[in-house]
């Protein structure tokens, strides 16, 4: 086919044609050729003489040859296929799994092998309780009409509104294509069933305050259920977007929540007072106990010392009674006399007291009394 045939009537160069367009153009030219030959006037070419009619078998043979040529071209074109980097190709030979092809250019037997391409890197997403409208930077969410997905019953017989997202990707292309008819619907049904079961086993307050734990439990059980069905998908993320009471009970719920916050505040204040007063009281009590213990030990030690001293004096008294008595008398006087200001001696023959020695503070440096004569 020349370059002149490929150019359009207006003289501009046409873009390269695909093989399907080339085959369709060839068939069209053949149809035009046969239609033109059948419509030719027999008297126009032979100077008035009619040419012999063409054999019908010859025209049929040409048609068969053309059909065979088209089939050969189509077979050659369909024998090669290309897999993009994010895809894998699953080949069935006569309806039975044969192999899985990685990215690149590959060959398959035409009319025998069937190719299915699966994107294994695409993150697929399912939304429950809402739908995203106009995704992008200013994504909007529509929650109307999805109450049957989001309303659930908790273990303490309360109704809660739950909205969540499940993200997954293809892990096993063969199982994804042929084990389950509709994998997307299976993911939706199992995710909703698992979430309702887990929420139904938890109390209302526990669901509200343990969103991350709830998401982890749903992800694990959802993956286990899909593995049992051999769905060929791997769960990436389970994220709870919104967990709230229904709109009809929100005012009552807010009042209960405020009362709960007040209760927690009062409990925290009481704990703060407890932590400030009780340790101080315990420290004071412990200090008193230690002081009492020290006082008891001191008294016991003093009593033991006095007892030992008395025994020693008694032992000396038994050996030297007079000397010991005089010594005890003098030692006692020596302890008492510094605190006495005046001493009076009473005589039997004297009617008035006689001052013996002035022991005032001014004369405290003088000897209290002269040494006794043995």
Task: Explain this structure.
It is a single chain. The protein has 374 residues and is of the alpha+beta class. Among the domains are: 19-39 and 58-114, no CATH class; 124-245, Band 7 domain (Tetrahydropterin Synthase, Chain A, 2-Layer Sandwich), CATH 3.30.479.30; 320-363, no CATH class. 50% of the residues lie in helices and 20% in strands. It has helices at residues 3-6, 19-38, 56-79, 147-150, 173-178, 183-200, 204-209, 211-229, 250-319, 321-336; strands spanning 80-83, 87-93, 96-101, 104-107, 113-119, 124-128, 131-133, 140-142, 151-153, 159-170, 233-244, 342-345, 354-358. Strands 6, 9, 10 and 11 form a 4-stranded antiparallel beta sheet that branches. It has a 3-stranded antiparallel beta sheet with strand order 3-2-5. A two-stranded antiparallel ribbon has the order 1-4. Helix 2 packs antiparallel against helix 3.
């Amino acid at each position: 086919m020349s370059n002149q045939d490929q150019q359009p009537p207006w003289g501009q160069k046409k873009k390269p044609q695909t093989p399907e367009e080339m085959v369709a153009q060839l068939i069209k030219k053949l149809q035009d050729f046969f239609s033109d030959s059948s419509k030719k006037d027999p008297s126009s070419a032979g100077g008035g003489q009619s040419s012999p009619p063409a054999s019908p078998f010859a025209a049929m043979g040409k048609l068969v040859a053309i059909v065979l040529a088209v089939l050969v071209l189509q077979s050659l074109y369909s024998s090669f296929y290309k897999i993009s980097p994010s895809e894998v190709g699953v080949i069935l030979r006569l309806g039975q799994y044969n192999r899985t092809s990685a990215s690149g250019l590959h060959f398959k037997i035409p009319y025998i092998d069937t190719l299915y391409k699966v994107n294994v890197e695409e993150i697929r997403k399912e939304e429950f309780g809402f739908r995203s409208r106009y995704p992008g930077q200013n994504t909007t969410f529509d929650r109307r009409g999805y109450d049957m997905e989001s309303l659930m019953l908790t273990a303490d017989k309360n109704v809660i509104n739950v909205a969540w997202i499940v993200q997954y990707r293809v892990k096993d292309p063969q199982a994804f294509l042929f084990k389950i008819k509709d994998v997307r619907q299976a993911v939706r049904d199992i995710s909703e069933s698992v979430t309702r079961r887990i929420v139904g086993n938890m109390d209302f307050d526990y669901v509200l305050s343990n969103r991350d734990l709830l998401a982890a439990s749903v992800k694990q059980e959802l993956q286990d259920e899909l593995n049992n069905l051999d769905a060929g998908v791997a769960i990436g993320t389970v994220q709870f977007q919104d967990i709230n009471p229904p709109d009809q009970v929100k005012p009552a719920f807010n009042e209960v929540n405020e009362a709960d916050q007040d209760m927690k505040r009062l409990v925290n204040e009481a704990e703060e007072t407890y932590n400030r007063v009780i340790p101080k009281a315990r420290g004071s009590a412990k200090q008193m106990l230690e002081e009492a213990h020290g006082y008891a030990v001191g008294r016991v030690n003093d009593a033991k010392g006095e007892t030992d001293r008395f025994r020693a004096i008694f032992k000396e008294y038994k050996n030297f009674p007079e000397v010991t008595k005089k010594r005890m008398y003098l030692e006692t006087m020596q302890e008492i006399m510094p605190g006495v200001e005046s001493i009076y001696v009473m005589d039997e023959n004297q009617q008035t007291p006689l001052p013996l020695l002035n022991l005032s503070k001014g004369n405290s440096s003088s000897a209290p009394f002269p040494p006794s004569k043995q």
